[in-house]
Amino acid sequence: MLKPDDRVVVYMRPGCHVCARVKKFLTEHDVPYEARDVDGDPLTPRELWDLFNRKADRLRVPFTALNDGEDVVLGFDPQRLEGVFVHGELGGVQVATAVTGVSGYDEFTTAELDGTRWVAREREGSDAQPTGRGQDIETGAGYLRISKPEHDVGYLSTQRFATPPGSLVSFQVDMSFEAGLQPAPLLGPPLGEVGLRDLPTGMLLGFEVTNEAIVAVHRRTGVAGVAAESEHFAHRVFTDLDSKAGQSHRYRISYRHDTSQARWYVDDRSVYDAIAPLQIEGVSLSMGLVLGDGTDTVDASRQSAVATWTPWQVVTT
Length: 317
Known about the structure:
- There is one protein chain.
- With 317 residues, the chain is mainly β.
- 9% of the residues lie in helices and 38% in strands.
- It folds into 2 domains: 8-87, Glutaredoxin (3-Layer(aba) Sandwich), CATH 3.40.30; 101-316, Sandwich (Jelly Rolls), CATH 2.60.120.200.
- Strands 5, 7, 8, 10, 15, 16, 17, 19 and 20 form a 9-stranded antiparallel beta sheet that branches.
- A hairpin with a 4-residue loop joins strand 12 and strand 13.
- The longest helix has 12 residues, at 17-28.
């Protein structure tokens, strides 16, 4: 049975009939709970990790959490709900089931960006709220386009993709980027970005793209309680590829678990490779626009930036 100080939260959306069934089940079994509307009160990336680091591979409502992630039950599963919240039988499903073969992630066919698949990303090294305010978003026709942002814009996939032992996992996406103002040096805001983020370790494998430059990025960023400042690093490698503002390229990053080797590709051409300083057990997909230096003040001329992404593809061999 639950202890008096146990906390149960049902993550739901208004009008969700399955969510209503979960709440009715808990009420009928005298289980006190809180209800959280994930549209009105979205989860942060840190909350997602706390809830799902060993529990589930994709955020879909409803899901019901015990003590902020001690156990999580997905959907309406009467047997699991009764076992966890009535009898105290813990033991959820594992995180990020490894994808086998080729798999797509979000075909961008919904009229709005799917909040069950993407969450706004917090600025690195800042206590600011998640980014994503004040921009125009166009989706629904097989791509995502963000334009006219007032602030840095970033999104993380709610699914964390496993990189299991013995595997080589590749992640690829097409992106175009264009900015009305591109100050010197070339590597500086505004820029578009795609990448793979491992929130538990702070590791990032990605690309930064300006009007004229494509840069491979390998870095470990600051995550409170994860890495000492001396363990942070940032490697940015300019490629010799010709690129023009608004030109679309295919960006691919592969990671081999057993050797921790990562390789960066542009249009199927290898442009950089490196050994990660620690093994990466799973990653979240990342994409965004960077306009400034992390402050709330962005020159209006930089707000002309626009980036377009196609659906991500994940290949495991």
